[in-house]
Write a structure and sequence with these properties.
The complex is a heterodimer.
Chain A: E1 4-6, E2 11-14, E3 19-25, E4 33-38, E5 45-49, E6 55-57, E7 60-65, E8 70-75, E9 84-91, E10 99-101, E11 105-110
Parallel strand pairs in A: 2-11
Antiparallel strand pairs in A: 1-3, 3-8, 4-5, 4-9, 6-7, 7-8, 9-10, 9-11
Chain B: E1 5-7, E2 10-13, E3 19-24, E4 31-38, E5 42-50, E6 53-56, E7 65-71, E8 74-79, E9 88-95, E10 103-104, E11 108-112
Parallel strand pairs in B: 2-11
Antiparallel strand pairs in B: 1-3, 3-8, 4-5, 4-9, 5-6, 7-8, 9-10, 9-11
The chains are: A mainly beta, B mainly beta.
C-alpha cells in the first residue's frame, strides 16, 4: 500500500458545485496533515492544515478520519479559480523523516 | 520576506553536461528540502538539510546527484553528468521545523536533450 494515495481525477465540475477529495495514508501514527494547492506550472502552496477536529477556511473544509486513515477536502461553491491540483501531505511519524506528498487530485471548474 | 528563491528558472542543457541548481531558503528556516517533480512520479523528496547538515539523502537517485548547503542561506543541487531522464521540475522548499508546513520556491524547469 502506498504511503499516501489520492484519486488523480480529473474532477470536472461546473461553477457553484460542491466537490470533495479524499486521501488515504498508510501510517496510523501520522500526526501532521496538510492540503496543498498547485497551479499549472507553479510551485505547491499551502492551502490549509488539517486538524483532528476538522477545520474550515471560507469555502474549504478539511476533515481527518483517523479510524479509516484518510483526510478529506470539501470545496463548496466552486469558482473557476479553484481549478488546480490538490496535494495531500502527511508525515510518516518516523524519526527524521519528512512530509510525504501525494501525487495530487486535479480539479477543473468550468463555467 | 522574499520567499524561497531558486535559480535558474529554466535550464536547457545537453546530455553529459553538468547542471547546478541554486536555492536560497526563507531566513530563519532551519530545514531545506530538494524535490523533483515529474508527471509519472509526482513530487519526490531528494534530500533535506537541517541547520546546513544533510539528514536524509535516500531519495537521491544516484551518484550523479549531489547537494550541498555551505551556509544557512544557500544550497546547491548538482547533476553531473546530466541525462535526458533527469528532465523534470526541481523545487527547493524550506520550513521552520521538520513537520511544519513547507514553503516552496518557483522551481527550476530542467530539460536535458
Amino acid at each position: 500500500r502506498k504511503e499516501v494515495e489520492q484519486d488523480p481525477g480529473p474532477f470536472n465540475v461546473p461553477e457553484g458545485a460542491t466537490v470533495a477529495f479524499n486521501c488515504t495514508y498508510s501510517n496510523s501514527a501520522s500526526q501532521s496533515f496538510f492540503w496543498y494547492r498547485q497551479d499549472c506550472r507553479k510551485e505547491p502552496k499551502l492551502l490549509m492544515s488539517v486538524y483532528s477536529s476538522g477545520n474550515e477556511d471560507g469555502r474549504f473544509t478539511a476533515q481527518l478520519n483517523r479510524a479509516s486513515q484518510y483526510i478529506s477536502l470539501l470545496i463548496r461553491d466552486s469558482k473557476l479559480s479553484d481549478s488546480a491540483t490538490y496535494l495531500c501531505v502527511v508525515n510518516q511519524f518516523l524519526a527524521g523523516t519528512a512530509l510525504i506528498f501525494g501525487k495530487g487530485t486535479t480539479l477543473s471548474v468550468s463555467s | 520576506d522574499a520567499g524561497v528563491i531558486q535559480s535558474p528558472r529554466h535550464e536547457v542543457t545537453e546530455m553529459g553536461q553538468e547542471v547546478t541548481l541554486r536555492c536560497k531558503p526563507i531566513s530563519g528556516h532551519d530545514y531545506l528540502f530538494w524535490y523533483r517533480q515529474t508527471m509519472m512520479r509526482g513530487l519526490e523528496l531528494l534530500i533535506y538539510f537541517n541547520n546546513n547538515v544533510p539528514i536524509d539523502d535516500s531519495g537521491m537517485p544516484e551518484d550523479r546527484f549531489s547537494a550541498k548547503m555551505p551556509n544557512a542561506s544557500f544550497s546547491t543541487l548538482k547533476i553531473q553528468p546530466s541525462e535526458p531522464r533527469d528532465s523534470a521540475v526541481y523545487f527547493c522548499a524550506s520550513s521552520y521545523r521538520l513537520l511544519n508546513e513547507q514553503y516552496f520556491g518557483p522551481g527550476t524547469r530542467l530539460t536535458v536533450t
